[in-house]
Amino acid sequence: MNKYLPFLLLGLALLLTGQSAQAQGPGSGGPAPDPNQPTAVPLDGGASLLLLAGVAWGNRRLRRAPRR
């Protein structure tokens, strides 16, 4: 039973999260976009943290790879 407990808790958390997401009403849709100006997409801290995490993970995988 002990080895199945994390999977049971994860399944329960996913089930409860899915139900709460369906209970939300529709949003306002946001402001109408201006056709004369392109939409600005902020690429800041989040993207650089994901890139850094990918580099660190790849470096770890390369260091743990068996030598030939």
SSE diagram, text form:
Elements: H1 5-22, H2 45-64
Oligomer: single chain
Distance between the termini: 42 Å
Which strand-content bin applies to the residues?
A: under 5%
Largest sheet: none
Specify the structural class: mainly alpha
Instruction: Kindly provide the radius of gyration, computed on alpha-carbon positions and rounded to a whole number of angstroms.
Output: 22 Å
Mean pLDDT: 80
Number of helices: 2
Principal-axis shape equals: flat
The string of secondary-structure elements, in order, is: HH
Describe the protein.
This protein is mainly alpha-helical and 68 residues long. Helices cover 56% and strands 0% of the residues. The protein contains two helices and no strands. It has helices at residues 5-22, 45-64. The radius of gyration is 22 Å and the shape is flat. The two termini are 42 Å apart. The mean pLDDT is 80.
Descriptive tags:
68 residues; mainly alpha; 2 helices; 56% helix; 0% strand; flat
Brief overview, please?
This protein has two helices and no strands. The chain has 68 residues and is an all-alpha fold. The mean pLDDT is 80.
